[in-house]
Specification:
Layout: E1 6-11, H1 17-25, E2 30-35, H2 38-41, E3 46-48, H3 54-63
């Protein structure tokens, strides 16, 4: 990874995860990372929250300790 590369996480708990991951992965200078654990957050520069039911997403974020 060069200095210009950034790591963008895609929250991997609900929603159109694969579609968002593939789109982020297609961007120049960007590395896509699936985020499901608290430790994953330490490795990224930004986070995409795929759409879904917000109450369920909130519950899953708590379940995974994010």
């Amino acid at each position: 990874m060069s200095e210009l590369d950034i790591r963008i996480g895609v929250l991997n708990v609900q929603g159109a995860v694969s579609e968002h991951f593939d789109h982020v992965k297609s961007l120049d200078g960007v590395q896509a990372v699936l985020v499901k654990h608290k430790e994953d957050l330490e490795e990224i520069d930004g986070l995409v929250l795929p759409g879904g039911e917000s109450t369920t997403i909130g519950k899953l974020i708590k379940k995974f300790g994010l």
